[in-house]
Each structure stands twice: as structure tokens, then as C-alpha cells.
Amino acid sequence: RRVHGHRTMPLYTPEPDVCHELLGHVPLFCDTDFTHFSQQIGLASLGATDEYIEKLATCYWFTVEFGLCRQDGELRAYGAGLLSSFGELQYCLSGKPKVLEFDPKITALQTYPISEYQPIYFVSDSFKSAKDLMIEYSHHIRKNMTFVTIPTSSKWKSLRASPIWRHSLMKCPT
Questions:
Q1: Which of 75, 82, 102, 117 has the fewest CB neighbours in a 10 Å radius?
Q2: What pairs with residue 40 in β-bridges?
Q3: What kind and span of H or E run contains 128?
Q4: Distance in angstroms (rounded) separating the CA atoms of residues 49 and 57
């Protein structure tokens, strides 16, 4: 498996690579708040329309892959696409690209290139705040069914729900 880009595009590799997975994704999944944020994107997708799946995938792109956060007032990179690319890591923190506050309603509509540095990045105050914003955003996703956690197990139950039921189910503790 290739662990670096092709000689014609050395800073980009279209196929998954070991550096990206090990340096980018693995360490973040040791952080509980990040894990809950990432899980929220997945939960929001359950039963969602294709339109919203695309929007959630865009939020994933700008967070899990290319996200920035603040730590002690300074920008820090956490997205796996940034952590596994020294060139884009330097670029995203250089002040050259546009940096906006993470807001799923806005982030979900942003277009992005997949084979060059991002012209725009989104920053969160914390993984917890990003998760809270994603939960709020997920309340507005059109779904043909709702999924709830069965509190005494790690299992999920799918419910075909009317809008009234859907509103009450969103308030169930997870």
C-alpha cells in the first residue's frame, strides 16, 4: 500500500494510507469527547435522506479530516488529513486560508477540493461544543425513521416515527 503521493502529486494520495490512519485517526479516537462527536455524525445519518447524508459527509470532511480547534486561544489542527500531511498542516495554520467558526448549517453547504490544500477550514472551541452543535443540527435532519438506544444494553432500536414522536425521541438520554 502506498504511504505517500505519486511523483506527479507528492502531497496527495487518493487511496487510504497507513500514515493517515495511524497518525491522523487513531490518536483522536483515544479522546472521549472526539469519539462522541464522531459518533454523533454517524448517529445523525441513521435514516437520513441522501441529501442530508451528503451534508453530514461534508461536516465530517471539515472536522474529522480537516478540522481545527482552539486551545489556549491558539489554533490547533486535529483533522486526520492535516495531521498526516506536514505541508497542509503548515499551510492551515499559516494565516493564508480562510478560517470560519464551525457551524454545521454552514459547514454542510461548503464545497471542497479533494486533491489540493483546502481554501477554507472550520474551527471549533472544543470537541464537546462541536458535538453539541451537531446534535442541534441533527434535530433538523429529515428522516424516515428514528433510532434510539436501549438503555440496558448497547443495542439500537429503529422506530418509524411521526414528527411528534421524533421530537420526543430526540430528548431520550443516550
A1: 75
A2: none
A3: helix 127-138
A4: 12
